Amino acid sequence: MNITISIIGLGLLILIHEAGHFFVARAVGMNPRKFYIGFPPALVKRTRNGIEYGIGAIPLGGYVKIPGMHRPAAGDLDVHLGRAVGEDPALLPAFEELYGRLEAGDHEGSRSAIADFRAQIEPDRLSHGAAKAAERGLGDIDDALAPDAYWRARTWKRVAVIFAGPGANLLLAIALFAGLFMAASGGYRLGFVLGATKGGEATSIVQEVAGETPAAAAGLAAGDRIVEIDGSAVSGGEIRAAIGASEGRPLQLTVLREGETVELTPVRPEDTGDYGFVESIGESLRVTGLVTKEIGATVGRLVTGSGRDEISSPVGIVQGSSQAAEQGADNYLWVLGLISLSLALLNLLPLLPLDGGHIAFSLIEGLRGRAVAREVYERVSVIGIAVVLLLFFIGLSNDIGRLGS
After folding, report:
1. Cis peptide bond N-terminal to 40, omega within 30
2. Crossing angle for the helix pair 107-120 and 128-144, nearest 10 degrees?
3. Domain 187-273 CATH superfamily
4. Domain range annotation of the chain
5. Which of 130, 166, 258, 321 lies at a C-alpha separation of 20 to 30 Å from 366?
6. CA 368 to the chain's CA centroid
7. Residues 162, 198: contact at Cβ < 8 Å?
């Protein structure tokens, strides 16, 4: 059951990400062609105001089709229409006309040539697969030439649409953290922040100790690993609950510091009082900043060749959130917020096909005043996909190792 909840939660985060793209695209005049809950093929679909809404057969996340993410090129025709022309040579003149207009950059003429090509298609002279590929390809190219195509929009609109996905995940993380701070009003704390794994699971390693707090008075320091509270062994996910259960009585923490066991001075947790809306937002932003800094440090360690064991795949994410769900709704929501923040930051890496890569290229094109060649996009995308796949397989191997042990 907890695994199911974790998978649904991860799918919800992806859906919120896609919804960010969808609503901002509509707001700036790029009319998405499709918006699915889940991934195609569609189980149910309905077209309204030119947008196809549907429920996909793959129940994880969402899908948005924004027209013209790339300027259409004449070379695209071989992929989409080559099979149809091969089966029906009578289509060759229409193909050459469309090819020439696309190559010359005649966008309006290209749309007319698309209509002419469609009119000359004889379904009984083509196989089902060739006819379907031709129709889908003509539709995609026609959409890419439309006035509301992504590549034709001003730079700020393109950046806004792409940033909206990670932005939605970032706002969700901040909202979850703020809500949890408000819900935790009246509890107890010592005044430190624990780290978290890439899967979102809380660790027992202290990331930061706030000044003039019980934790600071007890001698707790960043980098300490909390192993016991009042003589009882605790894991990362149990520390917060153990402090809250103290109801203000003194606690003694035992930590591992530079390989040595250290018993800290007994200290009384402080009552957190009531977090108002403004205070909760402030604390949420503080935690968001700390986690962002730690994730940035992890990326830096990867660049220098270390930090490999800090990477996790969706398997580890589901495992970590499932373990958090076992410890209660508040723990699960904390982890969900951490995963949402991680998704936002991951997608902002300047790599194609990630959102950060599209933002970087939009800014480059805006500064240059002209489009980057399609070949450059494709070559950079190959590099980005290779990096993403490498990170995925590293994370998967780490998760398999953790599951095995």
Report:
1. no
2. 160
3. PDZ domain (2.30.42.10)
4. 76-144, 151-185+276-405, 187-273
5. 166
6. 29
7. no
Using DSSP bridges, classify how beta strands 232-233 and 225-229 pair: parallel, antiparallel or unpaired: antiparallel
At 368 the pLDDT is 87
Provide CB contacts within 8 A for 77, sequence distance 6+: 95, 98, 99, 102, 137, 141
Predicted pLDDT at 371? 79
pLDDT of amino acid 114: 94
What's the rounded Cα separation, in Å, for the pair 290 and 293? 5
Closest CA to 341 of 275, 395, 285, 278: 285
- Work out the burial of residue 189: count CB atoms within 10 Å of its CB; fewer than 13 is exposed, 13-18 middle, 19 or more buried: middle
Region of residue 29 (phi > 0: left; psi between -120 and 50: alpha; otherwise: beta): left
Residues 6 or more apart in contact with residue 228 via CB below 8 angstroms: 234, 253, 254
Position 370 scores a pLDDT of: 82
CA distances from 195 to 41, 237, 395, 397 (A): 40, 11, 18, 22
Within 10 angstroms of residue 171's Cβ, the number of other Cβ atoms is 15
pTM metric for this prediction: 0.76
Closest CA to 84 of 115, 116, 123, 119: 123
| Coil, helix or strand at residue 22 | helix
Q: Are 13 and 172 in contact (CB under 8 A)?
A: yes
pLDDT at 324: 65
Are 28 and 66 a contacting pair, CB within 8 Å?
no
Residues making up the chain, counted from first to last:
405
